[in-house]
Design brief:
Blueprint (H helix, E strand, L loop, with lengths): L1 H19 L5 E3 L10 H28 L6 H30 L3 E3 H34 L4 H4 L2 H24 L19 H5 L7 H13 L1 H20 L4 H9 L2 H23 L5 H26 L1 H16 L1
Antiparallel strand pairs: 1-2
């Protein structure tokens, strides 16, 4: 009997050691540190936010595709933004709610890579859509006579395909570079989803290639997209200020308010999370966790609200759709 127990103990020790240094590890996701006992209650506001994000973005997509009056470049780009927000929401919802409801924290490397493909992929897509929307506003305000000839349907489709192609080229190699790595220790991640900088920190083999490719990817996305958005708005502001009538200036600039809001709620949480990851080692873990969830939940929740409130055509289309359903 003692021999059987000894063998069982040895087998457990071997399994633990194999997981401590493994090329096929199991990672442990983290919910809300320090609040594990009330995670079920915390799941209620999370469920409400997910419901708002899913229903709001689905409504925007449905309205744009069914209302012919909204078949214009600005609204096509808005539909791309809503699609990216839906993808971001769905990509993390399963693991976050599984932790809050069932404390299901384990995730394999392959599952982690799949989640990161969609998470980082839709993030890169959203960056690209923000640039396209800034370009749309730039052409509409600075060169309105050529607006329909510059932003044709075929050109918008080409832009959408380029966004997808750029995403695949940047994200797939970055994630495939994780496969040869070995991981050591307890493999506990900081968030309720797999986040590439978080996973890389747990590797015990050389991550030089991963870091270099990650830096190149960052430069080709945020490093290119952010200056393009800033430049577009500098040119827009210059064009608006050159208008003689204050009323006309206000009317023209009001068409940009929704997009400026969308850019702010996307970039501010993203930059804040990056800074916390980089420099906030002394910051409590609960702050890391909350910021990580805000980073992914805030844009999908607020974008439909901003565009529904601030864009008259979207608001009218939603009201008319709801009235049609009531009459039926």
């Amino acid at each position: 009997m003692s021999i059987v127990r000894t063998n069982a103990t040895n087998l457990q020790n071997i399994q633990i050691l194999s997981n401590l240094t493994s090329t096929f590890p199991t990672f442990l996701l983290t919910g809300i540190p320090g609040l594990e006992s009330v995670q079920v209650w915390i799941s209620i506001p999370f469920c409400c936010l997910y419901a708002i994000a899913l229903s709001g973005n689905s409504m925007i997509l449905f309205v744009i595709f069914t209302q012919h009056s909204l078949h214009e470049p600005m609204y096509y780009f808005l539909s791309m933004l809503s699609a990216a927000d839906l993808g971001l929401t769905i990509s993390t919802m399963s693991t976050t709610l599984a932790i809050l409801w069932f404390d299901a924290r384990e995730i394999s490397l392959d599952s982690c890579i799949i989640q990161m493909f969609f998470l980082h992929g839709f993030t890169v897509m959203e960056c690209a859509v923000q640039v396209a929307m800034a370009f749309d506003r730039f052409v509409a305000i600075c060169d309105p006579l050529r607006y329909t000839t510059i932003l044709t349907h075929s050109r918008i489709i080409q832009m959408g395909l380029l966004m997808i192609l750029r995403t695949v080229i940047l994200i797939v190699p970055l994630l495939l570079l994780l496969k040869p790595l070995s991981f050591c220790g307890a493999n506990v991640l900081s968030h309720s989803y797999c986040y590439h900088p978080d996973v890389i920190k747990l590797a015990c083999s050389d991550t030089w290639a991963n870091n270099i490719y990650g830096l190149i990817g960052l430069i080709l996305t945020t490093g290119v997209d952010t200056p393009c958005i800033v430049l577009s708005y500098i040119l827009i502001i210059r064009s608006v200020l050159s208008m003689a009538s204050p009323k006309e200036r206000h009317k023209v600039f009001s068409t940009c308010v929704s997009h400026i809001g969308a850019v702010a709620i996307f970039y501010i949480p993203m930059i804040s999370l990056s800074l916390v990851h980089r420099y906030g080692r002394s910051v409590p873990k609960v702050v890391h966790s909350m910021m990580a969830n805000i980073y992914l939940l805030l844009p999908p929740v607020l974008n439909p609200v901003i565009y529904s409130v601030k864009t008259k055509q979207i608001r009218k289309a939603i009201f008319s759709l709801l009235l049609q359903n009531k009459q039926r």
